[in-house]
Amino acid sequence: MKGGVIEKIRAAGGELYAISSEPQHLADQAREHWELTFETVGDPHQEISQVCSERGWLTLYAQDNLEFLQRGASWKVEHPKGFFQPGVLALTQRSRVLYRWRSVPSAANLNGTVCRPTAQYVCEKLEQALRAGADAADAAHDDHPEIDQKSIPTPLFLAAVLANGWFLRVKSFAYSPGVPPIQIRFGIAAFRFAVFVFAWVVAAVWLPPLPVALAFAAWAAWVVRDVRRTFGPLREHRELAA
Description:
The protein is of the alpha+beta class. Helix content is 43%, strand content 11%. The protein has eight helices and seven strands. The longest helix has 25 residues, at 182-206. The radius of gyration is 21 Å and the shape is elongated.
């Protein structure tokens, strides 16, 4: 909205819709909270996404494990068929694909958490596709878009979600109305982590080494178990067409 992309799309006779795997009431809530100027559509049963896949337009990846997401949410996560990973699809009225991109979960994008195409980049791709004429072929999947932000190293991400869970378990930075933006929450997590490390250093210097070592080993074993139990299933994604 800030970059004027929506105005360009509407000036060309198009419209923008955000489709979410959340139920409609949460999609409406996000639209109001973010003051969006376009429609948000809840698709918890993935009917719209399935149609897009069946017609060969775009096949998204989906994730069935909801535990990590639920840990960071103040509302009941309602994904009867799991949640789908992000994607972008642009069509003409004759169903020609002008642009398509899907997030392929990997370690490089933190299992789909980050790395989205920028709105201005997608808009430029749409303009190029329109200039090609109505008889042009469907656009291929864009595997290397200009992204909005790069991924952070996995150890740093794990440190942040551990700090967000007060070092007892990993906790996601899920969106909820009324909570601070994720940048602020990441800053709070970084401060917690610094204090946590400082406390262990002080304990190692001033307390008997054996009890400190045993306590740290017990904590590390607990955390490693939680990380494996939580993030192991997150690597198991399926295509909606499957």
